[in-house]
Amino acid sequence: MSEPIYILAIESSCDDTSAAVLQNNVVLSNEVANQKVHEQYGGVVPELASRAHQKNIVPVVDSALKKANIKPNQLQAVAFTSGPGLMGSLLVGTSFAKSFALALNIPLIDVHHMQAHILAHFIDDGTPSPNFPFICLTVSGGHTQIVKVNNYFDFEILGETIDDAAGEAFDKTAKILGLPYPGGPEIQKLAEEGDSSRFKFNKPRIEGYNYSFSGLKTNILYTLQKEVKKNPNYVQENINDICASVQKTILDIL
Q: The domain containing residue 10 runs over which residues?
């Protein structure tokens, strides 16, 4: 039986500093440091994010190695997110990964953020992995894509958003509603008590398999502004139904 391969993986594309240790395709540890500093601004501030990554990355990596019970000299490679993402945040993770790999004299593996979302399906967590080729819908804070996956290194984008991503639609709608950041979880929580059929919002007509969510956000804004002029308490009185209807509209579009 061959010796196990241990890889340290570093993720810093946005506001979470993450480090994981894998033994072959099994995750031994996965440590994440969140950044609360952005909540007061209603969104991620790139400069603040990169500063927080600088503070968090050493303790996060140290914790991941300790939880996996792996010493640095047992690692065979260091993987890191090379993009897409916030430039300053990516730079922190890239610089640390390069230095760590150089110090250990082991290979450095650059990983595309969106491809990593897809290939996470091949992590051994006890559930079956998909067979090639397959279609994958990727929905994250800054990206929405439909991808045909032919093999581990062959990805064909069939459709993607031409403006906002689905995650941005949730967060920007939450900001319009006066909900705290991040808005997606807040909308989902309030939607559980609401009637998703009560309000109808515009669904874009986009060619092919592409998406658009900026028009929906504008439609929600204008609809609420019109109603609030007639009743200043309109949003508060209807918040659950609004959230449920917004969530259903976004999911219908997807």
A: 6-122
